[in-house]
Amino acid sequence: MPRILHIGVGNFCRAHLADYTQDAGDWSICGVSLRSPGVRDGLKAQGFGYTLAIQGQEAKYIDVFDDVLVAPENPAAVLSQIAALDVHVISITVTEKGYHLTPDNRLNRADPMIAEDLAGHGPHTLIGFLARGLANRTTPVTVLSCDNRNGNGETLRAAVLDFAEAAHLRIDQAIASFPNSMVDRITPATTEALRKQTGDAMAVPTEPFREWVIEDSFAGPRPDWPDVQFVTDVAPHEMRKLRMLNAAHSMLAYAGTLAGFEFVHQAVGAEVLRNEARAVMSEAAQTLPPDVRHQAPAYAEALIERFDNPHINHSLRQIAMDGSQKLPYRIFDSIRERSADGAKSPALCKAVRAWLAFCREETAAARPIQDPLGAEISQLIASGAADQALLELIGAGHLSAVILE
Ligand code: CS2
Predict the structure, then answer these.
(1) How far away, in angstroms, is 119 Cα from ligand 1 center?
(2) Counting atoms of ligand 1 from 1, which one is nearest the CA of 185?
């Protein structure tokens, strides 16, 4: 049976890639956790199957995983799977920060974990594993990033090749393709209540909606995934999703938390924030390529409806995490493009100011900011730094006059 090696076994991949792959049939997935054994232990105890609790529909039992490897326990096993002949797709969901990139989307060689991997330890990181594993690969493979980064495939490819060059590894350029992809399914963390309700400790909650658009540049075989759009250019779809859905999500996360809400459906239920979310999406929509721009009004309304779903309980604080990694392509790109055209972006700028206010409030309350730059952000705030310095830290210094106007 052909296999997918999937790196990052959080709830999102178990609600998205695994669901699509089970529907396709004929393929199995071997998961890899880059950090803790928790998901492996939980899934293994029940034969790697789990309940996908699709809100408003019948639950679905997913049993497409055949194993989960825990990288820190046995890095060599992961490296050998990356080179395995029956693995035709290596897919990835490690969240934005798992790529260890600089604000301009290049591999951050100065990052302590990347530096460790470059020095020949571990590996510990996604990039270190892929570069070292692909260097031993003898047959073509597709490396499929399913994270919310712009140009996720090409960005990953550049980071892996950069690592390979720095580590003096030879990767045959024809051996791996890195299609870009856009993924979408709102998938919160599992709650105790869901575990009780389903009787499954590893249950995953998700919404009925799912979407996947993939660049049609596979290096070898792929599953016959139903409802997936294979396209030559993912960028318009990705811009629509990141700049509308994810931008509105981030705005609701910061402004909603500041307003005392806990979940997305509560925040978007408040009229002021609902209007703000619409304004963010409408400013963003004007930056989209013409072929997707005309779909934007209907898309925005469909998003509001998805955010309204009261059964999802999507925590605002979960979305608020890692703002330094998310805001650049969710919000800054739109502001920059609009400014270049002479347009103001009041709603998008207000969303960034909500992030600034959120960071200040967290620091004042002595709560750590959940972000790879969290310690630096808190330190700057504690030392009395102005907002401009915070924007500079996350690569938006050039936009600070516009944002803080
Ligand atoms: C969210 C996303 O956590 C976040 O930052 O905006 O995970 C969002 O729920 C997904 O991209 C929806 O597909």
Answers:
(1) 34
(2) 13
Residue 13: which CATH number?
3.40.50.720
Closest CA relative to residue 69, chosen from 10, 6, 127, 114: 6
Query: Based on the structure, what is the number of domains in the chain?
Result: 2
Residue whose tokens read 């509560």: 266
Task: Give me the DSSP letters along 243-302.
Answer: IIIIHHHHHHHHHHHHTT--BHHHHHHSHHHHHHHHHHHHHHHTTS-HHHHTTHHHHHHH
Q: Measuring from atom 8 of ligand 1, which residue has the nearest CA?
A: 186
Q: Which atom of ligand 1 is nearest to the CA of 322?
A: 5
If asked whether residues 290 and 172 sit together in one domain, one would say: no
**Residue whose CA is at the smallest distance from ligand 1 atom 12:** 186
Ligand 1: atom nearest CA of 318 is 3
Closest protein CA for atom 4 of ligand 1: 319
Task: Please check whether residues 301 and 168 belong to one and the same domain.
Answer: no
How high is the pLDDT of residue 203?
A: 98
**pLDDT tens digits, 249-260:** 999 999 999 999
So what's the pLDDT on residue 23? 98
- Cα 246 to ligand 1 centre (Å): 6
Domain assignment of residue 183, given as a range: 3-233
Question: What's residue 173's pLDDT?
Answer: 86
- pLDDT value of residue 7: 98
Q: Are residues 220 and 240 in the same domain?
A: no
pLDDT, tens digit, 9 for 90 and up, residues 259-299: 999 999 999 999 999 999 999 999 999 999 998 999 999 99
Give the residue ranges of the chain where pLDDT is below 70: none
Residues enclosing ligand 1, CB less than 6 A? Answer: 148, 184-186, 246, 249, 318-319, 326
- Same domain for 227 and 240, yes or no, is no
Could you tell me if 95 and 33 lie in one domain?
yes
Q: Which atom from ligand 1 is nearest to the alpha carbon of 249?
A: 6
User: Can you give the pLDDT at residue 56?
Assistant: 86
Q: Which atom of ligand 1 is nearest to the CA of 187?
A: 9
302 and 188 together in one domain: no
How many angstroms separate the alpha carbon of residue 245 from the centre of ligand 1? 8
Neighbours of 2 (CB within 10 A): 15
| Closest CA relative to residue 124, chosen from 62, 32, 256, 245 | 32
Cα of 250 vs centre of ligand 1, distance in Å, is 9
Q: Are residues 256 and 176 in the same domain?
A: no
Copy the structure tokens of residue 268: 């978007």
CATH code for the domain in which residue 381 is found:
1.10.1040.10
What single-letter amino acid sits at 332?
A: F
